[in-house]
Amino acid sequence: MRDLYEVMFRRRDVRAEFTGEPVDDETLGRVLAAAHSAPSVGMSQPWDFLLIRDRSTRQAFFDHVQQERAVFAAELTGEEAERFERIKIDGVLESSLSVVVTYDDSRAGPAVLGRHAIADAGLYSVCLAIQNLWLAATAENLGVGWVSFYREPFLADLLGIPDGVRPVAWLCLGPVTDLQEVPDLERHGWRRRAPLANFLHDEKW
User: Fold this and answer.
1) Residues 6 or more apart whose Cβ sits within 8 Å of residue 73
2) What CATH number does the domain containing 177 carry?
3) 47-67 pLDDT per residue, tens
4) Does residue 203 lie within any of the structural domains?
5) Residue 150 domain-assigned?
6) How far apart are alpha carbons 198 and 184 in whole angstroms?
């Protein structure tokens, strides 16, 4: 039990610590199996996992990410702009490979048990698979970095993702030199984790 909690609290969103060394097939298989074992609404399993190793594909995505970084940076001023300038937002080129996780809302449809009243329940299921992948990777001493500076149509076109299938996450994956004690955004003064007590409500809001 203690090991599970240790993995949860040791997990980090990795940017700068990737070594670029390969991930062996057995380890990658275990990590992906953990992701695939996640619960899903109506047992729909609405995810797919695209393994991206090709350098040219990663370079094209990296270039797009840098463009989106510039778009966001243009909205910032003063100290906030200075802080953001110091923050590395991806490990696309440094990591061993990337895993793109998608959501297919037609999977197991049209009548998906448990989704009729909450349309996003399938998307939540994909997020559970991502969390499983992240924790399994951490347990294997691998790092994961979720890149969110991209436009979905660009990524769908880059990877040939079919219409109606949504890319949810580009995850950089691979061995790391270490996992930071303090999350990057806290270390750079962008945000700090607030106490749990700030978010607890009894019975009603």
Assistant:
1) 81, 84, 85
2) 3.40.109.10
3) 999 999 999 999 999 999 999
4) no
5) yes
6) 22
